[in-house]
Amino acid sequence: MIESQTFKKKNYTTSPLPVDEYEDCTFIDCIFSNTDLSSISFVDCSFADCDLSSAKIYETIFNEVEFTNCKLLGLPFDSANQFTFIASFTDCQLDFASFYQRKLKNQHFIDCSLKEVDFSGAELSNAQFKNCNLENANFENTNLEKADFTTAYNFSIDPENNKIKGGQFSVNQLEGLLKKYHLKIN
After folding, report:
1. Which of these, 68, 75, 63, 25, lies nearest to 50 by C-alpha position?
2. Which DSSP category does 170 fall into?
3. Regarding beta strands 46-48 and 61-68, do their DSSP bridges make them parallel or antiparallel, or are they unpaired?
4. CA 71 → CA 32, 49, 148, 171, distances in Å?
5. What residue spans of 52-150 are helical by DSSP H?
6. How far apart are CA 186 and CA 101, in angstroms?
7. Contact, 81 vs 62, CB < 8 A?
8. What is the pLDDT of residues 60-118, one digit of tens each?
9. Which InterPro entries does the record associate with it (predicted)?
10. Where are the alpha helices (DSSP H) in the chain?
11. Of 123, 127, 120, residue with least CA distance to 98
């Protein structure tokens, strides 16, 4: 187990991060793009200004992990360990990521780009999407009960194919809920 260490400006594309348990570690300005992080355990860790785009995260444990200003393009979070997945995302690029059938109750996405993210079948009740771009994000059979979309934008959510009871939306976003009906809202 590796505990309470800080890793700065490391390029793990040339020298892979050893498979181990990382607890209370900080990763700053590190490059993990296209690397294999499978079966690694991250507990109480933080990633700041890191690039994890297209990394392999099969059965990777993310337990109480904070991502801040990170590139997480195309990450298949649906392949990460599902029993211990607790993460927060602030000012991150998560375009093309997948949270398919992921349990994300009370999840917070703050100032994130979530373009074309797959949220189908996910449990997102009480989730918050603060100032997030959800352009072409896929919500199908998704539980969005009591989720907060009041400052989110560019989303399209079909109320007939998703659970949205108690969800919070602003008046300006009605188009995102009624898009399939091709209505003109003025």
Report:
1. 68
2. -
3. parallel
4. 10, 8, 24, 31
5. none
6. 35
7. yes
8. 999 999 999 999 999 999 999 988 888 999 999 999 999 999 999 999 999 999 999 99
9. 5peptide_repeat, PA_immunity-related
10. 174-178
11. 120
